[in-house]
């Protein structure tokens, strides 16, 4: 597992939770700004 700078540890679980967290932020952006700005494609790519 790759250790990320500024973090004490990086496990599969923390990485997974992090992806969920950022996905939630992304979805909030989508809901607020709308899905007509290419967020769909961007979301599934990352």
UniProtKB/TrEMBL annotation:
Name under which the protein is recorded: Uncharacterized protein
Q: From which organism does this entry originate?
A: Halobacillus halophilus (strain ATCC 35676 / DSM 2266 / JCM 20832 / KCTC 3685 / LMG 17431 / NBRC 102448 / NCIMB 2269)
């Amino acid at each position: 597992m790759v250790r990320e700078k500024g973090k004490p540890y990086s496990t599969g679980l923390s990485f997974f939770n992090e992806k969920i967290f950022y996905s939630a932020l992304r979805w909030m952006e989508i809901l607020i700004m709308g899905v007509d700005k290419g967020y769909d494609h961007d979301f599934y790519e990352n």
